[in-house]
Amino acid sequence: MTIEMLHTKACPHAAEYLPRLLRLVAEAGSSEPLRVRLIADPDQAQRERFLGSPSIRVNGRDVDPTAEHRREYGLSCRLYSAPGGLRGTPPDDWVLEALRRHAASSGQGG
């Protein structure tokens, strides 16, 4: 399983979110390392299909259930539409669900 946090240099949410994301990965029972990747320019954002910072992916798939239908790639802060309104980081349950789904499909349990 590959777990990634993609971010821009100027994103205020990425550094704040990283410790929480590490706790969620541990809570899901994953021992996989978290890859933190900087998206540095608009061309890279297009190639990576980067929807904004921070973006969390498990096995290349964004944890946001609506991400597959979006095409607004670029160097921007990301807002997640979640229960309770807009926020700068994904809801914990989205991250945990993605981690558990991929762990179960690969036979890692969780």
Strand percentage, roughly?
Answer: 15-25%
Name of the CATH class: Alpha Beta
> At CATH's second level, what is the architecture?
3-Layer(aba) Sandwich
The backbone outline, from C-alpha atoms, is: globular
Terminus-to-terminus distance: 13 Å
Count of DSSP-assigned helices: 3
Number of separate structural domains: 1
| Uncertain stretches | none
Into which percent range does the helicity of residues fall? 25-40%
Question: What number is the mean pLDDT?
Answer: 92
SSE class: alpha+beta
Secondary-structure element string: EHEHEEEEH
Tell me the number of strands: 6
The biggest beta sheet is recorded as: 4 strands, mixed
* CATH topological fold name: Glutaredoxin
Strand order of the largest sheet: 2-1-3-4
Instruction: State Rg.
Output: 13 Å
Short summary:
The protein is of the alpha+beta class and 110 residues long. Helix content is 34%, strand content 20%.
Report on the structure:
Helices cover 34% and strands 20% of the residues. The protein is built from 3 helices and 6 strands. The protein is globular, with a radius of gyration of 13 Å.
